[in-house]
Batch of 3 targets.
Target 1
Amino acid sequence: MALENQADRLIAGKTILLTGAGGFIGSALAQSIVQLKPGHLILLDHSERNLNEIDLKLEGSAARDLYTSVLGDICDTKLLSEVLQRYLPDVVYHAAAFKHVPLMETNPFAAVANNALGTYNLAKLVRASGVANMVMISTDKAVDPISIMGASKRVAELSLLNLDNSRTRMSAIRLGNVWGSQGSVVPTFLSQISHGGPVTVTHPEVSRYFLKIDEAVELIFLASAFEGGIFIPQLGAPMKIVDVAEYLINQDQSAVEKAIPVTFTGLRAGDKMSEVFLSEEETAEPTIDRRLLRVTNKKISDDRFHLDIDELSNGVQQRHLTSMIETLCKIVPTYRPTRLLRSATAHASA
């Protein structure tokens, strides 16, 4: 049976919980899920505006009793427990995350609380509720991270690896930049072009992997058809960001006529020159579908991991930056905090 058909079978007639349902990827997933005729779709998002927008979009294409919109935060464990107990989902697609790298560097507690601890607690509740399948959208920034966002998403990946079992399979798929998403440069470039420029790029050599939203959704569904683990897409070559900027300028005739310039602003805190999908400690194995590779990881001992998570949670609750960063480095040994966070840590410890 084709894997696409297996993914369809995971959704058709089933109860699906989608976190981050109002975000760019979340809303695309929501619209694709309703087309596969689930028994019920629960849309969870902490943004009233975003949740209302996806609610209205689905209203025009799906029966109103096919989906339920829940305004809430994945850090609210009581709400999550209530949702899981009330609706008993078969599959959880976890798209909720804070994604903007520089913003998270100046809000590290929020990044860890939402991305790392929120995912860990959600995964624990999902497993305890006997949900059959949980799939998280991860990022290439989780590989050898230098940003707090990337490190928090790596902890989220490790949470799924450690909580995966025979009853609840847990998967994560690392994606690169999705064209048009809130974390993508494309909307920013288009806005700058519409205002007459200049178009700002951090560095002439910065490159990123890109994929279209329909490709991202297809890969997420595909990952949900496999056994648990971390998956990466089989992508082509990365693109230089300056080439993306020049392409968008050339696509706009008025921008060409105005000779809109590209200016370089310098790397921001947490930015890398290029991203990779595998660390040196990982290997990728082919799956039965050439579009996805399975990542092999060394599993951290369960007892040690859960103790470290408790320590991380204490650091967040007490807003003790030094403790939180030290614990993050213990859980994710390849994490290299930025100078901005090292300075903040030194100041907090003084």
Target 2
Amino acid sequence: MSAVRLIFDDGTVFHGVSFSKGPEGVAELVFNTAMQGYQEVLTDPSYAGQGVVMTYPIIGNYGINEVDGESRSIYLSALIVRDYTARYSHYQATQSLGDYLAAANVWGITEVDTRALTRYIRASGAKPAVITASTDSVEAVLRRLPLVSSVEGQNLASRVTCSEPYSWNVPDTVQYRVAIVDCGIKASTLNYLTQHGCQCDIYPVTVAVETVLSRKYNGVMISNGPGDPEPVTAVIQLIQGLQGKLPIYGICLGHQLIALAHGIKTYKLTFGHHGSNHPVWNVEKNKIEITAQNHGFSVDPAGIAAAGFSVTHTNLNDQTVAGIRNQDGSIRSVQFHPEAGPGPHDSVGFFDQFIQSMQVAVVN
């Protein structure tokens, strides 16, 4: 282990030691309030360009396995914890968290005062920090690595999307054919749809309207993904071109892109929502759902009604918009992750609504 510093633009420094070494660089730091699921966090493409601070202190005790990964690789820049446990114990585990990060050349940083760091991020907002093992002065490090690497204004979805179209595990009995726009798709979403009879064909964010319409799909799902939705103009235009022709559902970044496609604005949250314990009010069912969330931007409520949409879900922590729908329900989106791995699963009914929308479209 070697000493590591997290250096912010105001000169604030947090100290730790590495249990896995990555390249010196800049990443936006956010905190995640989940008590478990660190493998899912590591492999969630929505964390591209970010370093994640786990607020739960003990991380690593159940190791890494071959079944819980949400994508093909690690996308975040650093995992920052209070107490890293190298010794793991779980019947499915095949390696330690440290070995997993080291193989991907990603920072694992422990012995950080994560409580103080979380309070700093809450007060100052999610912002970039230099991650370095250098012993140079703070001033020298900041001259070498200017803190300009914010996710705001970057089309990070284009960096994590698939390079070519592909199909997921086709179910034995195909009931619906779904086009998935990969802004940073998670395996849990694909697995859930497959288990319910959907053949999922996954496309990059540059897929053309004509391509989707020519393949006679029953519905379109705009996936989760990282960063700022506004620069993801290709998907915004795709949604506009498909409106009224197919049911369109969106998750997380997909939710924000659906809003933008209908003239509803988005904005950057102070420190975002990251964790698996966020309460949301389901307005339609008048019940509370505990949800997994991972996003730094939100939908502006001001333009929702004028666009012909209504709010279906509200985040109870800060009253932000957590779900919208159009009048006939053929377009729906949620700001949280209904497919959440490892959980919670309060909101999987979102997928049932998607399937019902495709049923209605088939009948009509």
Target 3
Amino acid sequence: MNDSLPKIPRTLDLNLLRVFDTLMRERSVSGAAIRLNLTQPSTSNALERLRHALGDRLLVRQGNTMVPTQAAQDFWPHVQAALAKIETGLETLQHFDPSTAEGKLTIGIDAYSMAIMGPLFTANLKSQAPGLAIEYHASSPHLASESLLNGQFDVVIGPVWKPLPGLEHKTLKNETFTCLLSRKLQVTSVDGTISLDSYSSLPHLLYSEVGIVEGNVDVGLESIGRSRTVGVSTPFESTVPEILNSEEMIMTIGRSLGEKLAKQFKLRLLEPPVPVPGFEIGLVWSPVNSSSKRHSWLRDAIEASL
């Protein structure tokens, strides 16, 4: 044998590298065996297997100690570096420190959820993990199954109205509806409510990312034999106040966003004159990430900020 190591065979048992590292530290088979919690014969056998695989004696007995060959001394720093990387990887699996984390969080979210929740959990995520960039993409749970399963998105936030096969999800908020209209529009009765006739006859403003479609309001109206006419549909939250203040229209909108817009733009809030089913805003993720410390922190930080 010589001190020039050949290419490591693909069949090499990588557990032998831990034995080699310990032998280099202890310079004793018995000492290495104690440190590794192995028997002395098992440790000796591991050394022989490593010698055979690498084509070098590696450690040679001289008196009561073992002296490394030049090849072993050359090889050891690389083994130490590799083992250190593995330890770091295992530490990442067991612990996640957001304060030192780097990289990117990719979150799919719909416009409504972003408007009422985004600023809250963005602030919480950035305060805990300043080194992580946050990248938002317009999406919703029922449109993002593939993006979650292939790892394109870490999580997706938005309305959940039916089962999501193959995905995990948690409820972040249960929303009800309110009516939003200009203070100039006089359509209420003495007690401050709006009649079903007025509600049905007024043109409606619809806040929708996908255009004019039937939703919970239509379900509620149909249950009592009524319907409505959508006059305008907009996907942009910022256009809602101006449209309502310039047109004689009414809007039925999720309560959280309705209250926010009413306060900011001096709009009027009324209770719908018809029962409108509410909706759930969910946090959705791939089950392959359920045990990840990084993803667990992300999900917990989002939930805790609301």
